[in-house]
Write a structure and sequence with these properties.
Family: Belongs to the fructosamine kinase family.
Strand order of the largest sheet: 1-2-3-5-4
Pfam families: Fructosamin_kin
Enzyme class: transferase
Keywords: Kinase, Transferase
Order of helices and strands: HEEEHEEEHEEHHEEEEHHHH
Distance between the termini: 65 Å
Catalytic activity: N(6)-D-ribulosyl-L-lysyl-[protein] + ATP = N(6)-(3-O-phospho-D-ribulosyl)-L-lysyl-[protein] + ADP + H(+)
Structural class: alpha+beta
Length: 324
């Protein structure tokens, strides 16, 4: 028996109840996933739906909704648009997210022809909007987002070094301690990186020309593919499951390098379109510093060998930059 389409989804999308249905589609470690088909004003439509239980799902879907639309606004052909999120009516404590349907099996002609590198470069060179109540673009994001199951504090900050040290490194260390208990050696190393290495490598006035741009935030190869969005146009290079922040563009590269999967052709094209931030001789260490966050987050979530990866990065960076 097919799942019933909840009245909250029907209302949010303006769909006719009698013609709407959900079919299980894809998979997620944190949610149930479906293809939603139905009719609106006599026209057949299709969407992608996620559902999940509890406040964690509500936070996750709110962040994904805002993230998808931040990317879509900047590069419309790069990801599905998100249309609605909220609480289900018929299922207490359950929540939903509805986005454009992304057909990852499509090879339809007629797409933009833009490469992954070209789209990511466009995303990373478009200045972020100015948030309400501020006089200029800021580092952060309007809502919390989740990287895996970790809720991220995206409170606005004027300084990128301040944001990365406090909203990312120190915050994920606290998350890990709450889940797994205090690890004093790890905590001491993270504090030294946050207090010494981050200001040295990312400090205001040291990095040249850094402005907030949209960063996907969780761009490993499993969150990239090629597909047709909303049944329109042709197949495109696309990304999904974002965890966005308005941040330094190079922050994106940490997780991309951590898990690999992006070939030499991609990197050559991307670096031509988005030159390394000055001082460019420190680029490799900056990317290692950004990769560190994801090692810490994976250790907080999964334990295991990610601790050794984090410690290795921190020892190297502290030996070079931690004595100031």
């Amino acid at each position: 028996m097919l799942p019933t389409v909840d009245p909250a989804i029907l209302q949010a999308m303006g769909l006719e109840a009698t013609s709407s249905k959900l079919v299980s589609h894809g998979g997620s470690g944190f949610a149930s996933t479906f293809q939603l088909t139905g009719a609106r004003n006599g026209e057949e439509v299709a969407y992608f739906v996620k559902t999940g239980t509890g406040e964690d799902a509500s936070i996750m879907f709110r962040g994904e909704h805002a993230s998808l639309n931040a990317i879509h606004t900047t590069v419309p052909s790069f990801c599905p648009q998100s249309h609605a999120h909220g609480a289900l009516q018929a299922s207490p404590n359950k929540h939903f997210l509805v986005t454009d349907f992304l057909d990852l099996r499509s090879a339809a002609p007629g797409g933009s022809g833009l490469s992954l590198a070209a789209k990511l470069a466009q995303l990373h060179t478009t200045p972020a909007p100015t948030p309400p109540g501020h006089g200029k673009p800021m580092f952060g994001f309007p809502v919390p987002t989740c990287c895996g199951a970790t809720e991220q504090d995206n409170s606005w900050r004027e300084s990128w070094a301040d944001f990365y040290a406090n909203n990312r490194l120190r915050r994920v260390l606290r998350e890990g301690a709450e889940r797994n208990g205090l690890d004093k050696e790890l905590a001491d190393a993270v504090e030294k990186v946050a207090a010494k290495v981050v200001p040295r490598l990312l400090g205001d006035g040291h990095l040249k020309g850094v402005v907030p741009v949209v960063v996907h935030g969780d761009l490993w190869s499993g969150n990239h593919g090629r597909g047709r969005i909303a049944g329109k146009g042709g197949a495109e290079e696309v990304v999904y499951d974002p965890s966005c922040v308005y941040g330094h563009s190079e922050y994106e590269l940490g997780i991309m390098r951590m898990f690999g999967g992006f070939g030499s052709g991609f990197w050559r094209e991307y670096e031509q379109l988005v030159p390394k931030t000055e001082p460019n001789e420190e680029w490799d260490d900056r990317v290692s510093l950004y990769e560190l966050y994801h090692h810490l987050n994976h250790f907080a979530l999964f334990g295991g060998g990610y601790r050794s990866g984090a410690m290795s990065i921190m020892r190297k960076l502290i030996s070079k930059y931690g004595s100031g």
